[in-house]
Design goal:
The complex is a heterodimer.
Chain A lengths: L1 E8 L6 H12 L12 E6 L5 H16 L5 E7 L1
Chain B lengths: L1 E6 L6 H11 L3 E6 L10 E4 L19 H11 L3 E5 L1 H8 L6 E3 L7 E9 L15 E8 L3 E3 L2 H9 L3 E6 L18 E5 L5 E4 L17 H15 L1
Parallel strand pairs in B: 1-2, 1-3, 3-4, 4-11
Antiparallel strand pairs in B: 5-8, 6-7, 6-9, 9-10, 10-11
Classes of the chains: A alpha+beta, B alpha/beta.
Chain lengths: 79, 233
């Protein structure tokens, strides 16, 4: 199975990168942009075939290493 | 005083720390590879600056799982003195030995410059050789020093006098203009509740010799020895 994991800053936490990109888009005339938030995308190939087990293991790795719960949230898709 | 300095893959201030501790100040210094697990031969542990594991994923996120870190956790739980400088501070945050987290600097750039910091609390293991409110000049060199803590954590930092250093101007005023990286409440260094673990972004080991024209870092290392003598006595 493959896990696509998104790690993003929690809402309310200032994202200097996102802010810089938003300002840059504004400079280029993209006035439709209100805000930009930047996160990380991780593609993880798993040798697990059971969906429930895969979900548990991906959750565990997100909690232990891939995200910092003080500042980040995560979500993932399995396919 | 025997100081153990941890070398992670990507540490680059470990030898600077050893030089200051050993050659300049005359204490004993041991470099300890991160795969080791024994700290029985040291009184103080320093996690030095650098880019452990290339800062991949998040600064300090991978180093915190090095074998030596479990020993450092036990050492700290027993009251052992632990000092994290720059990347060492980031590792202590990731390991949960200090509260909060680091965000990217406000203006995204890597900042390498001298800053003024104020000693908020001169009654700590790490600052007893400074005066309260003393203004120090120390260099910083980091891209992720923008300290963040949620309101409840920040309130606890206040309640237990855990904020040890703040960025300030040369007169000692803690202002928004004197904040180099966007750090919450200009925080440059905090200690844990028990008071035996300190993390700081400025580099005391880079301002501890006359030849550099800056010596404000010396008193921090002397404070450690003073605290240690008190503990033994």
């Amino acid at each position: 199975m493959k896990a696509i994991i998104y790690v993003t800053l929690k809402s309310g936490i200032h994202d200097p990168q996102g802010h810089a990109v938003q300002q840059s888009l504004e400079t280029f005339g993209f006035h439709a942009v209100d805000s930009v938030r930047i996160g990380k995308l991780l593609e993880v190939d798993l040798n697990e075939t059971d969906h429930t087990k895969a979900e548990a293991v991906v959750k565990a790795m997100c909690d232990k290493l891939l995200s910092n719960p003080v500042i980040e949230d995560y979500r993932f898709e399995l396919s | 005083m025997k100081i153990g300095i941890i070398t992670f893959p990507g540490s680059n201030c470990d030898r600077d720390c050893r030089h200051v501790v050993k050659t300049v100040l005359g204490y004993q210094a041991h470099l300890i590879w991160h795969q080791e697990t024994s700290l029985s031969h040291v009184d103080v542990v320093i996690l030095p600056g650098g880019f452990s594991y290339g800062d991949y994923l998040r600064a300090g996120a991978i180093a915190r799982f090095s074998p030596i870190m479990e020993s450092i956790r036990q050492f700290a739980e027993k009251g052992g003195i632990v000092l994290g400088i720059c990347n060492g501070f980031q590792i202590l945050l990731e390991a949960g030995l200090l509260p909060g987290a680091m965000l990217k600097n406000r203006y995204l750039s890597f900042i390498c410059q001298d800053v003024s910091i104020k000693v908020e609390n001169a009654e700590t293991t790490f600052t007893n050789e400074y005066a309260s409110d003393q203004v120090l000049t120390m260099p910083i060199a980091h891209a992720e020093g923008n300290y963040y803590a949620d309101p409840m954590t920040l309130s606890a930092l206040h309640d237990h006098a855990q904020i040890v250093f703040r960025y300030c101007d040369q007169h000692g005023d803690v202002t928004a203009e004197a904040n180099p990286n966007g750090s919450l409440e200009n925080i440059a260094g905090i200690r844990n509740k028990a008071g035996n673990v300190l993390g700081m972004m400025p580099h005391p080991e880079r301002c501890a010799e006359d030849v550099f024209g800056k010596t404000d870092g010396v008193a921090l290392f002397r404070s450690l020895r003073h605290a240690l003598n008190q503990m033994v006595a």
